[in-house]
């Protein structure tokens, strides 16, 4: 991987025209009409999941939701570069990645509804649950990748995090360990320009990918709203990991069009003109324009995508609203793998409290 921090890799422009890039276009030369259509469909469905969950939170059905609006290409493009046996360590915003990995839609909002300690079973899709502690997943991914390397598993491990997480010590430690021990991990930074209310220019005076260079880790910047470009550079990074060449760093330049979470009001800290600029770079519209330019768009395909989107949106809504409330005592289950005296004491105290409240 070469230093492309000064100008991001781009294979499709916002107007849908392809870019001549012999180095990276070769990595997606096998992506034909159906795969392009699938990328588009998955991005549309991912956005529907996101907008449905946001609406559910506004209606009081979820306690919180971290929107991914605007980041569909970064997530779907990178997820399509992975094999089923690869492993993903996510942050809290990768619902699109979970969808691409085949998550059970009935589980995608469980944590955010407060009905469970987690959403899905990680073993089902080789992907961890949302990580609320910013940057912690970088260390988890590095340790898992190193263990897989020791066992001889020819897999790649990919960890997602945002631009704000690069200011956390956990990410710095993960980069250092991964470099020292050649762990087969891909650090995938979704630089969405805002770490809650602080712009990325406050986070760093240099492109974030260059932080990896200080550890001897190769990296690349990519237009994160270009699904094909993201797919190409992620394929290259996971190929390095699988072949034993060590870690890589991908910085996907994208934009968080919505709030940091549904508890946030982005109008308090960013200008509407900035949002309008990025809306013109919408990743879904870009892929649609590519399909139209290459005669891959027709009414049947449009209906197919709309139908799938409606089905998924309805499934998420129904599963969320019909989700049973947990028993209050379930709060103490699965905190540790073995019984813990402090947890058992808290269990007894809480049971006594509930009994007193009922009497």
UniProtKB/TrEMBL annotation:
**What cofactors are annotated for this protein?**
thiamine diphosphate
Pfam families hit by this protein:
E1_dh
Query: What biological-process terms (Gene Ontology) are attached?
Result: branched-chain amino acid catabolic process
Q: Which UniProt keywords apply?
A: Oxidoreductase, Pyruvate, Thiamine pyrophosphate
* Annotated Dehydrogenase E1 component domain residues: 42-319
| InterPro entries for this protein | Alpha-ketoacid_DH_E1_comp, DH_E1, PdhA/BkdA, THDP-binding
> What GO terms are given for molecular function?
magnesium ion binding; oxidoreductase activity, acting on the aldehyde or oxo group of donors, disulfide as acceptor
Name the chain's protein.
Answer: Pyruvate dehydrogenase E1 component alpha subunit
């Amino acid at each position: 991987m070469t230093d492309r921090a000064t100008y991001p890799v781009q294979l499709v422009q916002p107007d849908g025209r392809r870019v001549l890039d012999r180095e990276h276009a070769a990595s997606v030369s096998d992506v034909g009409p159906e795969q392009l259509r699938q990328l588009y469909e998955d991005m549309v469905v991912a956005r529907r999941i996101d907008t449905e969950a946001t609406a559910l939170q506004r209606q009081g059905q979820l306690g919180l939701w971290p929107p991914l609006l605007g980041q569909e290409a970064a997530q779907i493009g990178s997820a399509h570069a992975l094999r089923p046996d690869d492993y993903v360590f996510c942050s809290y915003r990768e619902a699109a990645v979970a969808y691409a990995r085949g998550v059970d839609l009935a589980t995608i909002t469980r944590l955010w509804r407060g009905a469970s300690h987690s959403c899905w079973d990680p073993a089902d899709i080789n992907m961890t649950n949302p990580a609320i502690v910013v940057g912690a997943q970088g260390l988890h991914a590095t340790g898992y990748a190193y263990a897989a390397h020791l066992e001889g598993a020819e897999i790649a491990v990919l960890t997602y995090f945002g631009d704000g997480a690069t200011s956390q010590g956990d990410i710095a430690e993960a980069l250092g360990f991964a470099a020292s021990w050649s762990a087969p991990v891909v650090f995938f930074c979704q630089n969405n320009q805002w770490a809650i209310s602080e712009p990325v220019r406050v986070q760093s005076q240099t492109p974030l990918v260059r932080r990896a260079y200080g550890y001897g880790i190769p990296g690349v910047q990519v237009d994160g709203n270009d699904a094909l470009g993201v797919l190409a550079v992620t394929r290259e990074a996971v190929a390095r990991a699988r072949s034993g060449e060590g870690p890589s760093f991908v910085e996907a330049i994208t934009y968080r069009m919505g709030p940091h979470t549904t508890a946030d009001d982005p109008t308090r800290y960013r200008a509407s003109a900035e949002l309008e600029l990025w809306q013109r770079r919408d990743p879904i519209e870009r892929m649609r324009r590519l399909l139209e330019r290459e005669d891959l768009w027709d009414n049947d395909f449009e209906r197919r995508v709309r139908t799938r989107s409606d089905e998924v949106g309805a499934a998420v809504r129904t599963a969320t609203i019909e989700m049973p409330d947990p028993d209050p005592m379930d709060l103490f289950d699965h905190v540790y793998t073995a019984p813990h005296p402090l947890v058992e004491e808290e269990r007894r105290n809480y049971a006594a409290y509930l009994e007193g409240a009922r009497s």
